[in-house]
């Protein structure tokens, strides 16, 4: 990934964090929104990449980011939501969506970046990520923040980030 792409993705993420805060999201939910938009910017760069080496390198980074994000959510965020009656259904729906995302990521992994089937597989993943992000940011996060309260949401950010770093280390 070149420095301009990385900077653009970071800027998209920071902008999303500010927008999330304007909409009332704080703590871990603002951080998750930031990461969503950073990943979307990187996926867009990947979709446009024509050089196979660049595709492979970008895909490795994006794959690690997506998987560590989802796994950390499953470890630190959604079990908390499962403990509240008001958010239990959100936790269950997210678990299904996370499984679908991981399946699509696995499918992209199986296809060589120079293959004709690679771009359509990536586009299916991009669509699913977009749907997942929209659902989380418009519905899940506001409901969850209301149920948990702002203080609890703030306290979830650091455990989430630590879990994400552990996942990134495991993924290489």
The helix count comes to 6
Which descriptor suits the 3D outline?
Answer: globular
Give the total of domains: 1
Instruction: Give a quick account of the main beta sheet: strands, pairing sense, barrel closure.
Output: none
Total beta strands: 0
Q: What is the subunit organization of this protein?
A: single chain
Helix content: over 70%
| Strand content bin | under 5%
- Low-pLDDT ranges: none
- CA radius of gyration: 16 Å
Q: Residue-averaged pLDDT, rounded?
A: 91
Describe this structure in words.
This protein has 172 residues and is mainly α. The chain has one domain (3-171). It is built from six helices and no strands. The protein has helices at 3-22, 27-48, 52-82, 88-110, 118-148, 150-171. Helix 2 (27-48) packs antiparallel against helix 3 and helix 3 (52-82) packs antiparallel against helix 4. The radius of gyration is 16 Å and the shape is globular. The two termini are 16 Å apart. The mean pLDDT is 91.
Can you lay out the helices and strands and say which pair or pack?
Layout: H1 3-22, H2 27-48, H3 52-82, H4 88-110, H5 118-148, H6 150-171
Notable characteristics:
mainly alpha; globular; 172 residues
Q: Could you give a short description of this structure?
A:
The protein has 172 residues and is mainly α. Helix content is 87%, strand content 0%.
